[in-house]
Amino acid sequence: MLRRDAQANRVRLLDAAERVFAEHGTDASMEEIARTADIAPATLYRRFGTKQALVREVLATFFGRLVDLADQALAEPPDRCLDRCVELVGYELAARRGFMHGMWGELAPRELVAELEHRIARLLARAQAGGGIDPHVTVGDIAALVWALRGIIQTSEHVAPGAWRRHAAYALAGFRAGTPQDTNPLTPEQVARSVAS
Q: Measured between alpha carbons, how far is 79 from 130 in angstroms, rounded to an integer?
């Protein structure tokens, strides 16, 4: 177990890394992160031997938060749960614009990603059972919506904060209106492969 001051340093480093990566992506240097945390670079390297290890830890924290947000949304009524999840995730992404899937690559925590997909599947089933969401909507459709929101947030949040909410509302309305039957739905894996290439 870490001593109290060591734990405090770890929290400061992860918070600083999250802020720096969110602003600059993974091109940010370890020295910049240490400077932001107001901690000596040697302390950062002692705690996280490589930038890759630090990115993994930051992403694990980020995905853990997304899982928690999905859990919060599951507590909502069926006609609100999916909307609430998209809303919460949108705000989280807007606060951390640098977390783009293309930079995650193999560093994304697979177990947490799978856990998040499981939560989204439960939310979708709940929304389809009692919230008016079309039965043809898939988890891949939700993943594609989240990726679209990332693109809107990444390109417009600095000039039109919150513009993603309009797109989310229209997409969710479309999920209730029904989906075209002549198209093949994307799987979450296809979305992940597409945005990583």
A: 6
